[in-house]
TrEMBL record:
Gene3D superfamilies: lambda repressor-like DNA-binding domains, Umud Fragment, subunit A. PANTHER family: HTH CRO_C1-TYPE DOMAIN-CONTAINING PROTEIN (PTHR40661:SF1), PTHR40661. Keywords: DNA-binding, Transcription, Transcription regulation. InterPro entries: Cro/C1-type_HTH, Lambda_DNA-bd_dom_sf, LexA-like, LexA/Signal_pep-like_sf, Peptidase_S24_S26A/B/C. It comes from Alistipes indistinctus YIT 12060. It holds the Pfam family Peptidase_S24. This is HTH cro/C1-type domain-containing protein. Residues 5-59 form the HTH cro/C1-type domain. The lineage of its organism: Bacteria, Pseudomonadati, Bacteroidota, Bacteroidia, Bacteroidales. SMART domains: HTH_XRE.
Amino acid sequence: MRERLRLIRKELGLTQEALAQKLGIGKSALSMIETGRASLSERNKNIIVQELNVNPEWLETGQGQMFFEQRPEAVFTNRTDRRLPTQSVPLYNIEGTAGLVPLFLDRESVRPVDYIHIPNLPRCDGAIYVVGDSMYPLLKSGDIVLYKQVSGIENIFWGDMYLLSIDIDGEEYVTVKYIQKSENEGCVKLVSQNPHHADKEVPVERIRALAFVKASIRMNSIR
């Protein structure tokens, strides 16, 4: 993969410093990846696919075209999912529903603000707007994530991206994070894309709602 990473840089005319900045890592870290002394993380692969329009199949295997002919509207975090030719994904305003928990408990009683129609999506239960910059540059505030509810922490895929509702002193905190295993028993580690946000250890018992992020939609404003 290190050879393909160098090919991407050459094709786009990027220096090591410029690509490292896009990935949110240091130039020395990128140099180690390109020389085979370190591996490319899943979060950085996602950035390369989304931000640089690189074909994920080519990135993994070298097969096919390096870049998509047309940038996809949505970026899939799990390419092994079976996709549906068409579906209507409800878009919710979680502020209007008092958070994720009421929405997940009784979705039928919550009225969506709109519906999203994108062909060939994995099956999704709903979509919400992202708030905050903890997953920047992969996700920015105002982007949309489409999700599939998960019944419990035992059903997650470690290292993937999830939408969570966490109880902090009786208040609900809704966030999008990578979930990794923790060395502390009964806890999980929540990891941000943004290097300025520190990792957080959270007791599993404080996670009130959980959903797997299936796709994301980048919202760009034109001025």
